[in-house]
Amino acid sequence: MTTSDPGNTPGPAGTGADDSVQAELNRLRASIDNIDAAVVHMLAERFKCTQQVGVLKAEHQLPPADPSREARQIVRLRELAESARLDPAFAEKLLNFIIAEVIRHHETIADGARDGGA
User: What is the assigned CATH class of domain 17-114?
Assistant: First the structure.
């Protein structure tokens, strides 16, 4: 038997454990939702900073990408991931995705500066 919530699948009727399991799922999911919100807000803050870096780079005709910094950041993030017991390969993939987006933003900012818009 299921309810309208696809994540809510009760067990046999009449067992008190069903309510406690569902309450624990709800508690954990609420924490996950809070963490997701914090991650989104932290990424937004990070991108505000990287946008400023992009403007500074464009003003001084610096390249959008900085491979040596990116390599240092990957090493640093992998170490942080290991100490946090997070898969370092996952952390690296995430950082590479973020770096690619930052570079794309920096290229857009540089293009605007060349066109007289920065």
Answer: mainly alpha
